[in-house]
Amino acid sequence: xxxxxxxxxxxxxxxxxxxxxxxxxxxxxxxxxxxxxxxxxxxxxxxxxxxxxxxxxxxxxxxxxxxxxxxxxxxxxxxxxxxxxxxxxxxxxxxxxxxxxxxxxxxxxxxxxxxxxxxxxxxxxxxxxxxxxxxxxxxxxxxxxxxxxxxxxxxxxxxxxxxxxxxxxxxxxxxxxxxxxxxxxxxxxxxxxxxxxxxxxxxxxxxxxxxxxxxxxxxxxxxxxxxxxxxxxxxxxxxxxxxxxxxxxxxxxxxxxxxxxxxxxxxxxxxxxxxxxxxxxxxxxx
Length: 286
Hints:
It is built from 12 helices and 8 strands. By secondary structure, it is α/β, with parallel strands linked by helices. The chain has one domain: 3-Layer(aba) Sandwich (Rossmann fold). Strands 1-2-4-3-5-6-7-8 form an 8-stranded mixed beta sheet, with helices on both faces. α1 packs across α12 and α7 packs across α9. The chain starts with a strand and ends with a helix.
């Protein structure tokens, strides 16, 4: 049974986290994206624990009230800080010198790609939902695919000073409609907005975009066994970027396309995502 825990790292930030499974079992660290919360992994946390893993899904920097430095200083939310948080959470969970499995969706996928690039010796397997390898994303966005630029136009809008007010207007109508259009159940939408649907959390979440800017930093080829899951109804990631990810993985690679599934696959198709993850983890034990 998953439970909510508090994880405090050495920088004195305290993260809310969903945790399940026996301490000491192989760790699976699950990183959420925008516009959601740790609850996107509810089903996977349960499934992983039942399969003998220790699952930890934190609400990340800015989403957890106890881990919310000033969003007016974008450097507080640079991807390097988000990467540091993930590794510190793994260490605080008792896996500071052990290999572990890593999963990420959307922004959490960006962090996961970067961690796999930097710490391949620590990551037993990588699972990414929706977010292509940054090099494939940049290639589609900048050179080959006008469709991808259209799909990603909201990233630039998120840099506007009034973006938080716009997103939260009319009871967070934009967020509710986008999540619903991607097949996220009403109960899951309520859970995500319970975390993100306030001005302080939203400003902190948008600080991730403001710290990074419009372009993702390029990475080297990934040398960690990788499962990449993409729904062909994803409204933010087109086929060119998704299919192009294979060019940037120099390790065993599995590309799974989910027909009719949108951007938030873990919410929309939880059983299938859990099934694919469990197969992948079993093939590459920590």
